[in-house]
């Protein structure tokens, strides 16, 4: 029988190698989000995150608040992005210092209400816009509505703009991906101009890192490539 420790050790060595490989594909100034949702793609969220924190990842991303709380309970102090925070958990984001991805106007309203009730100022949030066909995020046509609300809500501050490339793994869809990248840039410029400060811009998953250098922006989100 193989001792349990051996397999974990090998996994962590692979993880370290993959992390350095992905980082070598991005500029030094580009931040790296390690996506550890789904129990770090089945590899053990706590062990994997602790290793990645030691290696110097800038950020973590989880799907749900519960996973992020588990990280906070296990010595993870780096910023954590929660990709699919649910309404009944939004308050916990503030209590545990988690940065929610806001993907609808209703969610923006709900979160700012909690932030206000908890006397927050400039609480960091990430706004997700839909730049493709993937139905995830706020529609680009709603940008004015979103900006108006944010300007009236000093309890939150836009730390980042997020979008998701729908076909970055498929080089036959290069034209489509380039359109997503262009729209993302336009949204980012508009937000920064209107709000008057720099935000983090993140659109790439692993295949975006490998296939679309122009989509790296200020931060990338990698999951599968780490494992
Ligand atoms: C899962 C996920 C990622 C990571 O994608 P990989 O292809 O595994 O690198 C990035 N961003 C979002 C929003 C995700 O849900």
Report on this model:
The protein is an alpha/beta fold and 227 residues long. The chain has a single domain, classed as Alanine racemase (TIM Barrel, Alpha-Beta Barrel), CATH 3.20.20. Helices cover 45% and strands 18% of the residues. The protein contains nine helices and nine strands. Helix 6 (105-117) links the parallel strand 4 (99-102) and strand 5. Helix 1 crosses helix 3 (45-55). The longest helix is centred in the C-terminal third of the chain and has 22 residues, at 174-195. The protein is globular and about 55 Å long. The model has no long low-confidence stretch (mean pLDDT 95). Bound molecules: pyridoxal-5'-phosphate. Pyridoxal-5'-phosphate binds at residues 35, 37, 83, 164, 205-206, 221-225.
What layout of secondary structure does this protein have?
Elements lengths: L3 H21 L6 E5 L1 H6 L2 H11 L3 E4 L2 H8 L7 E3 L7 H6 L3 E4 L2 H13 L5 E8 L7 E2 L3 H9 L4 E7 L11 H22 L4 E3 L3 H6 L7 E4 L5
Parallel strand pairs: 1-2, 1-9, 2-3, 3-4, 4-5, 5-6, 5-7, 7-8
Helix pairs in contact: 1-3
Task: Please give a handful of descriptors for the protein shown.
227 residues; alpha/beta; TIM Barrel
């Amino acid at each position: 029988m193989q001792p349990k420790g051996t397999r974990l050790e090998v996994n962590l060595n692979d993880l370290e190698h993959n992390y350095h490989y992905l980082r070598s594909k991005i500029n030094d100034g580009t931040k790296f989000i390690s996506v550890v949702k789904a129990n770090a793609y089945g590899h053990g969220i706590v062990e994997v995150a602790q290793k990645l924190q030691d290696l110097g990842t800038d950020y973590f991303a989880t799907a749900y608040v519960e996973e992020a709380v588990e990280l906070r309970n296990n010595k993870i102090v780096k910023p954590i992005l929660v990709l699919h925070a649910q309404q009944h958990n939004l308050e916990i984001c503030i209590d545990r210092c988690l940065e929610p991805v806001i993907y609808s106007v209703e969610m923006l309203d709900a979160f700012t209400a909690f932030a206000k009730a908890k006397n927050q100022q400039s609480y960091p949030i990430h706004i997700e816009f839909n730049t493709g066909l993937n139905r995830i995020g706020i529609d680009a046509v709603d940008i004015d509505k979103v900006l108006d609300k944010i300007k009236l809500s000093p309890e939150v501050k836009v730390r980042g703009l997020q979008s998701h490339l729908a076909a970055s793994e498929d080089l036959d869809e290069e034209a489509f991906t380039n359109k997503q990248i262009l729209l993302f840039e336009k949204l980012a410029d508009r937000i920064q101009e209107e709000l008057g400060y720099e935000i983090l811009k993140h659109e790439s998953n692993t295949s975006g890192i490998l296939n679309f250098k122009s989509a790296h922006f200020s931060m990338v989100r990698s999951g599968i490539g780490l494992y």
